[in-house]
């Protein structure tokens, strides 16, 4: 207790005391050593318990004379020509698949909206502005700016939802 004037004042503990003037290095070093030693002890405990468990399993499954040395069977190794052949075959397979993927990307679209534009079809009934036509073997609702007769050949100019904009195909 400190006395200031006539009344006593309780002193507060200094929370930064270990870090002040020269005590910092000793305190941090001690804290790190304690933490490291506890971590090493934990790892050692885990390792020993796992070693005990695996030792029990090994004694059950593997006879003692096989544990001491690796097993070698002469003539049963993997030959270098086999490894090289497998590597070349694998590389050829991967390059072949990549080549097929590139060729597929270059091919024209065969379905969907993009494929319909430019396709030809046949009008199924007389059309003033809207009617029906067969394009790629399917019946489509079509719209035209000019009147068309049944059986006339048309070319798809655009696709608007499920309606095709068509124009007369030049013979």
Written description of the protein model:
- The protein is of the alpha+beta class and 171 residues long.
- Among the domains are: 30-68; 113-168, Nucleic acid-binding proteins (OB fold (Dihydrolipoamide Acetyltransferase, E2P), Beta Barrel).
- The protein is 43% helix and 22% strand.
- It is built from four helices and seven strands.
- It has helices at 23-61, 64-67, 80-106, 113-116, and strands spanning 2-4, 7-9, 120-123, 130-135, 138-144, 153-160, 163-168.
- The strands form two sheets. It has a five-stranded mixed barrel. The chain has a two-stranded antiparallel ribbon with strand order 1-2.
- A hairpin with a 2-residue loop joins strand 6 and strand 7 (163-168).
Which terms would index this structure?
single chain, 171 residues, alpha+beta, OB fold (Dihydrolipoamide Acetyltransferase, E2P), 5-stranded mixed β-barrel, 7 strands, 43% helix, 22% strand, elongated
Mean pLDDT: 77
- The H-level CATH homologous superfamily of the domain at 113-168, spelled out, is Nucleic acid-binding proteins
The largest β sheet comes out as: 5 strands, mixed, barrel
Question: What is the CATH architecture annotation of the domain at 113-168?
Answer: Beta Barrel
Which strand-content bin applies to the residues?
15-25%
Number of helices: 4
User: Major sheet: order of its strands?
Assistant: 3-4-5-7-6
Radius of gyration: 43 Å
Low-confidence stretches: none
Q: Could you give the count of β-strands? A: 7
The succession of helices and strands, N to C, reads: EEHHHHEEEEE
- Straight-line N-to-C gap: 113 Å
CATH class of the domain at 113-168: Mainly Beta
Q: Structural class of the helix and strand makeup? A: alpha+beta
Q: Considering DSSP H and I runs of 4 or more, what fraction of the residues is helical?
A: 40-55%
Mass-distribution shape: elongated
Looking at the structure, the CATH topology of the domain at 113-168 is: OB fold (Dihydrolipoamide Acetyltransferase, E2P)
């Amino acid at each position: 207790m400190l006395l200031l004037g006539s009344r006593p004042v309780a002193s507060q503990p200094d929370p930064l005391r270990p870090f002040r003037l020269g005590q910092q290095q000793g305190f941090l070093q001690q804290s790190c050593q304690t933490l490291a030693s506890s971590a090493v002890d934990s790892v050692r405990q885990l390792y020993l318990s796992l070693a005990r468990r695996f030792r029990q399993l090994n004694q059950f499954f593997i006879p003692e004379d096989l544990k001491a040395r690796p097993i070698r069977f002469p003539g049963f190794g993997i030959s270098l020509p086999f490894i090289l052949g497998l590597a070349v075959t694998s590389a050829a397979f991967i390059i072949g698949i990549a080549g097929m993927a590139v060729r597929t990307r270059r091919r024209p679209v065969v379905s969907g909206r993009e494929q319909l534009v430019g396709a030809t079809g046949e009008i199924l009934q007389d059309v003033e502005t809207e009617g029906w036509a067969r394009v790629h073997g399917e019946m489509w609702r079509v719209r035209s700016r000019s009147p068309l007769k049944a059986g006339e050949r048309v070319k798809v100019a655009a696709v608007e939802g499920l309606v095709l904009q068509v124009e007369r195909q030049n013979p």
